[in-house]
Amino acid sequence: MAKEREIKTNLLQSIILFVRENHAADIDKAYAYFWDEAQPDELLSGTALELGFVNFEDWLLFDYKVNEDKQTFLEIYAAGHAGLKAGEKAVIDKIKGSVLSFYEVVSVAKDKRVLLKDLLLDEEFSLKDKYLTRGLNKGDLFATRILELDGNHIMSGCVYPYGATRKKNVLAAVDKQFSRFKRNVNAEGTMREYLKDYGDVFNLIWLKLLTESPEEKQ
Description:
Helix content: 40-55%
Order of helices and strands: HHHHHHEEEHEEEHHHH
Radius of gyration: 17 Å
Distance between the termini: 44 Å
Strand content: 15-25%
Number of helices: 11
């Protein structure tokens, strides 16, 4: 495993333990918010439920605003641990501003390198990690978080898979919420700013699509 990726993996493990030991009430509050007061095991099962918990922890550490200063747990951990090494601080600085966004697989090369198009921020990323990109096919749609570590782009591990025919539905749902954000929160706000503050929108869309009735899916 490359150096920065190894640091990131170890850091996130340490941070989630820190959060569990010191911020139980905040986890409960974030959990209720993320799942819109529902119980995920009543909506999901099997692999989807496991993925839902992975997605929740990713959002909890990267995006959830813990206090009135709008700090994330990444920032709180960094500020409260004076013993962090320079490499650890550098990795936190590199990943803390990342956002969840909506991607389409543009192409899959013979060597399994995957080209992704960010449909909201109009960017493209080439992913080389076969372990993280296996099973992806051209036209696949999903939300995830892209990180740049060791000179390469990788997925953070969270993913919200949508059916290959759902591009218009997801884009329309995000655009509706982004318009509400600009109307009620920040008239000059950018899409990136919206995604940093409201990345949980992808979970709500994912749940809605998963729990649609057969008639709604047609």
